[in-house]
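Query structure, 461 tokens:
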């Protein structure tokens, strides 16, 4: 059976080619500097070639390698523009596609999961994959009752490959710093490892999707497809036809970008309260704009359950920072464990560090941009700056890590969109603790304009 390349020697050799390739290019770069090219030109070329090889290998190996590539792709907007252009296309490919599994192997998986009479459940089944991702691929089909459905199948050997990749990639973490200095993938890999078993169990994913669908049933803005059938390694759900967010990022007009950004903001800010869940995989391949203008959401393999909803403390921290209450901000950060006992930080240092990152909630609406995100990335990630020293003194409590990572990823996608969205008003509506006793913004529905404006004519697929 042709599955994910999973023999440890083969996969390790593929991943090991990354640092070897970097070393070789660095040697060539030294030679080019000696022949007259500037250090800046050589470094830009080195970063572009490193990224091209990196994301090619991650996509080919699927499993944890490709999953990491997809997770990193949402931060593409933070990469300096002069370095981003050569490999933006490679990042986008990781959001939507991967090498497909042969039809014979697809049939074997369906035999194992649904029995050899699985075809009787369908009126039609397309052997050609409609999409392929990190641990599985999707086929379009027609269910027995006539509904168009998406059939998601897990690659054979996905589990061992996923765990092996994460272990190997942790060893090669320095390669990623070649693309964006200050980029630390180790915490991301650690969190991915913790969630591997959940993502491999399509039964858990199906339940998460059912819970999301119940929370957003008949919603005016968000569409969650209903689950039709599930097994441990196969899941069938209603098909969603629409324009992928990646296409809107690439070619959408400003109205389409603003609408998509507003709806994505609504999902990420409202889900912890409405569903007690958080969609934890915000890369653009998991979202599309439907013909009626609503946001369709797919892939619920990475979902955080928040039985108490969004933590109120995060909203209070944001509000104190926006109000410029540095003493109150430092006090609550110590209370919640973001500043450990004995760590010496002044209130002004904390406010100066965090304040600019909260620009999206300072005003009723905010225009997200690559330029804004790069400024924040440079300000916080440059080890030569004072902010980097201060950042190393903070602590991120484990219970907040996934929330923090998803927020960063969502903002990265909003910056790729270049969307103007009512982010501050949505945060005040949905983030507990942010409004407090004195709301800052207009209390009317921040989505009223969306409700009364027909979908952009360029949005439908």
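Result returned for the query:
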């Amino acid at each position: 059976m042709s599955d994910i390349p999973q023999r440890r020697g083969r996969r390790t050799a593929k991943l090991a080619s990354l640092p070897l390739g970097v070393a070789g290019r660095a040697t060539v770069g030294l030679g080019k500097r000696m022949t007259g090219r500037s250090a800046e030109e050589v470094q830009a070329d080195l970063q572009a070639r490193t990224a091209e090889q990196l994301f090619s290998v991650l996509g080919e190996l699927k499993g944890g390698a490709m999953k990491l590539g997809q997770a990193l792709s949402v931060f593409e907007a933070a990469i300096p523009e002069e370095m981003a252009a050569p490999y933006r296309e490679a990042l986008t490919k990781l959001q939507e596609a991967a090498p497909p599994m042969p039809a014979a192997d697809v049939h074997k998986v369906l035999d194992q999961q649904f029995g050899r009479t699985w075809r009787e459940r369908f009126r039609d089944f397309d052997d050609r994959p409609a999409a392929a991702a990190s641990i599985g691929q999707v086929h379009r089909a027609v269910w027995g009752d006539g509904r168009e459905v998406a059939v998601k199948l897990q690659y054979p050997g996905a589990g061992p490959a996923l765990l092996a990749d994460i272990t190997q990639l942790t060893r090669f973490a320095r390669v990623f710093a070649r693309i964006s200095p200050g980029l630390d993938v180790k915490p991301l890999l650690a969190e991915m490892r913790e969630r591997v078993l959940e993502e491999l169990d399509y039964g858990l994913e199906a339940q998460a999707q059912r819970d999301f669908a119940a929370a957003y049933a008949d919603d005016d803005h968000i569409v969650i497809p209903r689950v039709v059938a599930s097994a441990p390694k196969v899941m069938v759900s209603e098909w969603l036809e629409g324009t992928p967010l990646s296409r809107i990022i690439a070619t959408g007009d400003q109205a389409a970008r603003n609408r998509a950004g507003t709806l994505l903001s609504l999902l990420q800010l409202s889900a912890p309260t409405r569903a007690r869940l958080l969609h934890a995989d915000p890369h653009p391949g998991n979202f599309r704009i439907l013909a009626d203008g609503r946001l369709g959401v797919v892939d619920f393999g990475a979902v955080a359950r928040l039985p108490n909803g969004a933590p109120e403390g995060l909203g209070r921290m944001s509000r104190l920072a926006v109000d410029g209450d540095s003493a109150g901000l430092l006090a609550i950060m110590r209370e919640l464990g973001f500043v450990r006992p004995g760590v010496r930080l002044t209130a002004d240092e904390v406010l100066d560090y965090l304040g600019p990152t909260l620009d999206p909630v300072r005003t009723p609406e905010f225009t997200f941009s690559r330029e804004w995100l790069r400024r924040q990335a440079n300000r916080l990630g440059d080890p030569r700056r004072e902010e980097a020293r201060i950042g190393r003194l903070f602590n991120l409590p484990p219970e907040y890590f996934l929330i923090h990572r998803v927020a960063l990823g969502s903002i990265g996608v909003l910056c790729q969109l270049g969307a103007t969205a009512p982010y501050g008003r949505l945060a005040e509506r949905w983030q507990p603790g942010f409004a407090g006793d004195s709301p800052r913004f207009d209390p009317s529905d921040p989505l009223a304009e969306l409700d009364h404006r027909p979908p952009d004519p360029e949005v439908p697929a």
